[in-house]
Amino acid sequence: MRKVVSGLFISLDGVVESPDQWQFAFDEQMGESLAEVLETSDTILLGRVTYTDWAGYWPGVTSGEDAGFANWINTSPKHVASTTLAGTDEWANSTLIKGDLADAVRELKAGEGKNIAVAGSPTLVRSLLEQDLLDELVLLIHPVIAGEGRQKLFADDAALRKLELVSAQPTSSGVVIVTYRPVR
After folding, report:
1. Domain count across the chain
2. Do residues 133 and 107 touch, judged by C-beta distance below 8 A?
3. CA 95 to CA 115: how far, in whole Å?
4. What does the DSSP assignment read for the chain?
5. What is the per-residue pLDDT across 97-112, written as a single tens digit (0 to 9) for each?
6. What is the CATH classification number for the domain harbouring 10?
7. How far is CA 125 from the centre of its chain?
């Protein structure tokens, strides 16, 4: 069975929104960690906000340092979780999930292929974790406090959920890459 894996940049105070505004470094180990997600995944899950933002950007990237990721994400099947989007026609290989999210994700997990990567989409990550559909949570923890007014990964009133540590690796820039699995 395929795994659903999420990788997120996160600050010490739990902020995941707009890492481009507080992420101060990107080192070789971080690149290797993200490359592993790309190599082991062939399908992408996106929430509405990330889909809308990225659909306007990634299809136009054809060269430069981001070209490899752009090629991967543009050619991979993308499944979009949204109850408000009418369609996903503006980005090739995108499909709007219709009906129950849990049923759709279970169907994807039961299918053939590599892992399913959740790209960005912290609201979707929370939902998948709450519904016991997320298999691994990779956090790239930056030694920075991003501050108020930005979306955190978990709300203050989130339900108690136990995760087990799979691995932890500090990087040369002081970021710590941790992988967790939900305890089932």
Report:
1. 1
2. no
3. 17
4. ---EEEEEEEETT-B-S-GGGT-----HHHHHHHHHHHHHEEEEEEEHHHHHHHHTTGGG--SSTTHHHHHHHHHS-EEEE-SS-S--TTSTTEEE--S-HHHHHHHHHHSSSSEEEEES-HHHHHHHHHTT---EEEEEEES----TTS-BSS-TTPPP--EEEEEEEE-TTS-EEEEEEE--
5. 988 999 999 999 999 9
6. 3.40.430.10
7. 7
User: Is the sign of the CA dihedral 103, 155, 57, 37 positive or negative?
Assistant: negative
Domain membership of residue 82 as a residue range: 4-182
- Amino acid, single-letter form, for residue 41: S
pLDDT digits (tens, 9 = 90+) for 152-183: 999 888 889 999 999 999 999 999 999 999 99
Interval 136-159 mean pLDDT: 90
> What is the phi/psi pair of residue 151, to 5°?
-70, 130
Phi first, then psi, for residue 52 (nearest 5°) are -60, -45
16 Cβ contact list (under 8 Å, min separation 6) = 8, 9, 10, 122, 151, 152, 153
| Residue 74: closest CA among 62, 54, 89, 59 | 59
- The angle at the Cα of 140, spanning 108 to 91, to the nearest 5 degrees, equals 45
Q: Which two tokens stand for residue 2?
A: 């395929």
Per the CB < 8 A criterion, the answer to whether 139 and 8 are in contact is yes
**Number of other CB atoms surrounding residue 80 within 10 Å:** 23
